[in-house]
Design brief:
The chain is an alpha/beta fold and 235 residues long. It has one domain: 3-Layer(aba) Sandwich (Rossmann fold), CATH 3.40.50. The protein contains 9 helices and 7 strands; from the N terminus they run H-H-H-E-H-E-H-E-E-H-E-H-H-E-E-H. A 7-stranded mixed β-sheet has the order 3-2-1-4-5-7-6, with helices on both faces. Helix 4 links the parallel strand 1 and strand 2.
């Protein structure tokens, strides 16, 4: 029998940790692309229209007081002012990204001790199992080079019946066309077709998969299936 992981212990497991890929790391080119993009990204998304688009997507996030939430690929922390008030005084928010410059801008959005910042690879965050009630993946998923590995990592980090939300403020077709016109670094960073996305999520241990794909947004919701070890812990 695995010792029970209590909610407080989950929160105590959230620590500030920095990950710096060594020169030659396969992510380095893409990481540098996003390092250079940080200021432009912040300005681009500071418009009323972008804020309206973001609000429409946030309506699909199952937020609740007291949750421990991971905002993976958080960028400049656009979600912080929207998420933190809904988590209440007992909630925790982890903002994680592999770009130091993105995180540096994100830090300016909140001085709350309920928000922790983590520079890390989304495919190997190095945090303990079963920490999070909710993982939000906003504007990140196409950029993950190893999508199944990332989904397996998200599943590991979620407690049983925790939820993963993958979201964009553009539909799949429009987003893929946009990326195809961009820098060669992200030109092939595409959202999978619906059947492939469902297959990836199922293989990674998710159930109750819902996909919303309209011209204005793309949202995937999936619930983490408990492993046998997790069933022993959380019964």
């Amino acid at each position: 029998m695995v010792d029970e992981v209590k909610p407080l212990e989950r929160k105590e497991g959230l620590v500030k940790r920095f990950f710096n890929p060594k020169p030659g790391d396969e992510m380095m080119t893409k990481r540098q692309f996003f390092e250079n993009l940080a200021d432009e990204w912040e300005q681009k998304h500071a418009t009323p229209q972008e804020e309206e688009n973001l609000q429409a997507v946030i309506q699909h996030f199952p937020l609740a007081p007291g949750q421990v939430v991971l905002d993976i690929g958080c960028g400049t922390g656009r979600l912080i002012p929207h998420l933190l008030p809904q988590l209440g005084p007992e909630g925790w928010l982890v903002e994680a990204d592999f770009s130091f410059q993105m995180l540096s801008l994100g830090r300016t959005r909140s001085a709350s001790d309920q928000v922790l910042f983590l520079q890390s690879d989304a495919q190997a965050l190095g945090l303990q199992d079963n920490l999070f009630d909710l993982i939000i993946c906003l504007a990140l998923f196409p950029h993950l080079d190893h999508k199944l590995a990332a989904l397996l990592e998200f599943h590991r980090l979620l407690r049983p019946d925790g939820m993963l939300v993958i979201a964009h403020s553009l539909g799949r077709e429009r987003l893929n066309k946009l990326h195809a016109q961009k820098s060669a670094v992200i030109r092939h960073d595409l959202l999978p077709a619906e059947a492939e996305m469902k297959q990836l999520l199922t293989r990674a241990g998710f159930k109750e998969i819902i996909i919303i794909d309209t011209p204005e947004m793309y949202v995937v919701k999936a619930v983490a299936v408990a492993t046998e070890a997790q069933k022993d812990i959380w019964v």
